[in-house]
Amino acid sequence: MANIKSAAEHARISKVAAARNASVKSSYRSLVKQFEELVPRDPELARKMLPLVTEALDRAAGKGVIHANTAARKKSRLASRLKALTK
Fold first, then answer.
1. What are phi and psi of 66, to 5 degrees?
2. What domains lie within the chain, and their CATH numbers?
3. pLDDT tens per residue, the chain (87 residues)?
């Protein structure tokens, strides 16, 4: 436990932020997982789902949960995986 009042406050705030970040991270990871499972089975439906996944990654990057370059890299890899199977 923190000895200083401001440190205790920061610990409380940190818990709230960690819970919020976990929620955002979980939601985008779930969408990515659904997309990756959908690509080999139904590429056409996956093509329609790609904007939802990219939006979720952009939202996570905008909130600072993941770095912007990480989001861009993930979006690029997902799009190229879809493109490779739809040739």
1. -125, 160
2. 5-85 (1.20.58.110)
3. 788 999 999 999 999 999 999 999 999 999 999 999 999 999 999 999 999 999 999 999 999 999 999 999 999 999 999 999 876
